[in-house]
Design goal:
CATH topology of the largest domain: MetI-like fold
CATH architecture of the largest domain: Orthogonal Bundle
Number of helices: 14
Helix content: over 70%
Largest sheet: 2 strands, antiparallel
CATH class of the largest domain: Mainly Alpha
Strand content: under 5%
CATH superfamily of the largest domain: MetI-like
Number of domains: 2
Length: 319
């Protein structure tokens, strides 16, 4: 009886093969593993090579630009007129416009997304969660250019009705639609972080007499803080790189302003404007595109590294 239980059909099959057949099966298995390993390595190498190619192109053109325009003037200048005579290459107006979008979108997406995640994770019934979360994530599937038209045709008229001085293209409407756009990212990542907190911590809080709100705000949210912060940083990085919605809604006026109802221009908006026009490829006006793109690449890379660092430093490991 014991021998029948311990006898593996695979072993019986391998013993039934001749040595030549068994060797052939092993060789085929090694060939299949080698092919699969090569395919996986190729997929990983493609991403690395693509990133290296992007860095190489940006570096080449950016170095050519900074050979004609000092880095200090580029980073500290307050006028951005690369196609005018005389040309000015101060990128601060573009950075200011980008910050308007990031800050405005964060003010919308972070509190609403976190509140949505808390409800989905801690209060929603399975039926409500099954309905609300897919509906919320549908927002992530809407093309960004649709958000731009939504800002122009719906958000801006509402702002003009409330504030008559609002321009057609303005920072506020762009920030609102970008905030709606990154809302699913914040909600989904925060929801995953909250649900990763063990139920034993919740039950311990309830055993000590905590209410549901107290357990959520004093136990669950602090326990998932690293994931929440990382999701916020990633969402802000996404807002920095947003292109079409911002290009349509914010305008093409590079300026340093504290008024969100005025037209502005972001770094991505400038890149879109220049790449669709006729620009001579032998001057700093053309190389300025790559200089702005390189700065944008560094900003998003830094944001992602900060997010990874936060997760690594403050991650709570639950046994």
């Amino acid at each position: 009886m014991n021998e029948a239980v311990l006898d593996d059909p695979t072993d019986r099959q391998s013993r039934s093969l001749t040595p030549e057949a068994a060797g052939l099966v092993k060789r085929r298995g090694r060939i299949h593993e080698t092919v699969i390993r090569a395919l996986l390595f190729t997929c990983a190498a493609i991403s690395v090579v693509t990133t290296a190619g992007i860095i190489a192109v940006l570096s080449k053109e950016a170095f050519a630009f900074f050979g004609e325009v000092p880095v200090v003037d580029f980073l500290t200048g307050t006028r951005w007129t690369p196609n005018f005579i005389p040309a000015h290459f101060g990128v601060l107006p573009l950075i200011c416009g980008t910050l308007w979008i990031v800050v405005g979108a964060s003010l919308i997406a972070i509190p609403v997304g976190l509140a949505s995640a808390i409800y989905l994770s801690e209060y929603a019934t399975p039926r409500a969660r099954g309905i609300l979360k897919p509906v919320l994530e549908v927002l992530a599937g809407i093309p960004t250019i649709v958000y731009g038209f939504f800002a122009l045709s719906f958000v801006s008229p509402i702002l003009q009705g409330i504030f008559p001085t609002t321009q057609v293209y303005n920072a506020a409407s762009a920030a609102i639609v970008v905030g709606i756009m990154i809302l699913p990212m914040v909600a989904s990542l925060c929801d995953d972080a909250l649900r990763s907190v063990p139920n034993s911590l919740r039950q311990g809080a309830y055993a000590l007499g905590s209410t549901s709100l107290e357990a959520t705000t004093r136990v669950v949210v602090p326990g998932a803080l690293s994931g929440i912060v990382a999701s916020v940083v990633l969402a802000m990085s996404r807002a920095v790189g947003e292109t079409m919605a911002v290009a349509l809604a914010a305008g093409m006026t590079p300026r340093i302003t504290l008024n969100p109802l005025e037209s502005i221009q972001t770094m991505t908006g400038y890149i879109v404007e220049q790449t669709k026009g006729d620009i001579a490829h032998d001057g700093p006006g053309y190389s300025a595109i790559f200089a702005v793109a390189a700065l944008l690449f560094l900003i998003t890379l830094t944001s992602n590294l900060i997010s990874h660092r936060i997760l690594k430093r403050f991650r709570e490991v639950y046994e």
